[in-house]
Amino acid sequence: MSGQTDLHAESPTNVRWLMFGLACGTSWFLYVHRYAWQFVGPLIQETYQLDHTRSLFVFSLFYWTYAAGQIPSGVVIDRFGPHRFLGVSILLWSIALVGFGLTHSLLMIGALRLLFGAAQAGCYPGLTKATRVWFPLNSRTTIQGWIATTFGRGGGAMSPIILGTLLIGWCGMSWQSALAVMGLAGVVFGVVFLCLFRNSPADHPQVNDAERVLISEGGTSQSVSGILPWKRAVRSRSLFYFIIQQFLDAGSDVVYLSLIGKYFLDRHGLKIEFGGWLASLPLWGGALGGIAGGWLNEYLIRTSGHRRWSRSGIGFAGKLIGCGMLYLVIQQSGPVGAGISLMLAKFFSDWSQPTTWGTCTDLGGRCSATVFSIINTAGTIGGIVMPIVFGVLLDWNTTRQLVEGKMVSHTEWGPLFVLLAAMYLACGIFWLLIDCTKSLDEFPSSSERRE
Hints:
This protein has a single domain (14-202, 232-438), classed as MFS general substrate transporter like domains (Growth Hormone, Chain: A). The chain contains 20 helices and 2 strands. The protein has helices spanning 2-7, 15-34, 37-47, 52-80, 83-102, 106-120, 123-134, 137-170, 175-196, 209-216, 230-235, 237-258, 260-267, 272-304, 307-331, 335-350, 353-364, 368-396, 414-431, 446-450; strands at residues 398-403, 406-411. A hairpin with a 2-residue loop joins strand 1 (398-403) and strand 2.
């Protein structure tokens, strides 16, 4: 009888890899569209004659609604699943991107930045949920590294090349037309996502029992629904330290979105078609770091058996080395050396990104989207606060003088990179205090039940 059972045993279907491809595409488009601001921002700053502080205030509007939408998005996704939520989100932010090129009003640009942030708010909470439901525990961190960091940062790296070098530089498009092309491509992908994605293996008719068993190995629950025990969350020291770490991490990361393009145009005097390649280098570093970090997470957990210190150790080491690389940026006089140094800084900083996703799923369990949304809210608040700090710092270090009847400004960029290095170091220290094994998705203790 057992031989007959083996003979008829079915091989697992591979629907999970279709979901993986759709998740990677979502992450890629999110960053391609978001990082278009690297060159759109300076053009808007020049058009409306804005100083650094006011320009970065307009940039930061994205993070207002991005922050406000995080936790509500996570709760909705944990309750109803990520399918329709993510599909509609992709359509909305792609349409908003097209709108940036159609308006001639600074007020409307601000309104579109708010819409853009609201539409992207639920993306990574939704993808966190999808990876937990669609992939087994023993490969989840590597999968998360590919989705979040490799394809996400890869999209960010491609953004200045697609917008600046290809569409504007080689094709001769205006930046408005280039944005329209990028946005309409996102609309097409959003429709494909809505047609093909599903919340869980149980919702997809082409998933067979063998694939469901494979996905559930290691104790992975395919249940979509979960409600975070808020009392336990408030008392969690690891969650508290995680929140501070993410504020500093994401707060420092906005530099790569808002200022690196301008840094190469301003500090090194490059044209946009050449600056696009160099501005993409840090994001390529981050994409490669995601691959390395995801693999290293799984390897250390598997060989050492210590999930807590494997995650914390990778987070600490990456931020510490990244801190040193940022100090090297200050020493570079040429654009290529600066680009390589920034690439290395981002590589080591971003190898902790799969650790962040893995820690969210470890802490959150069935409520991983809500936990991720809490962490992302903390990072988003960093995205609101720090651009203003960076703008003020740059304005303090900007001098203006009249040269041949024309006002010329010069900005000293060194202090900005010193501040970023200090934030990286603080991130690393907080990683050592986070214990990812203290799950929030557990039955309450007897003392909690009595309360």
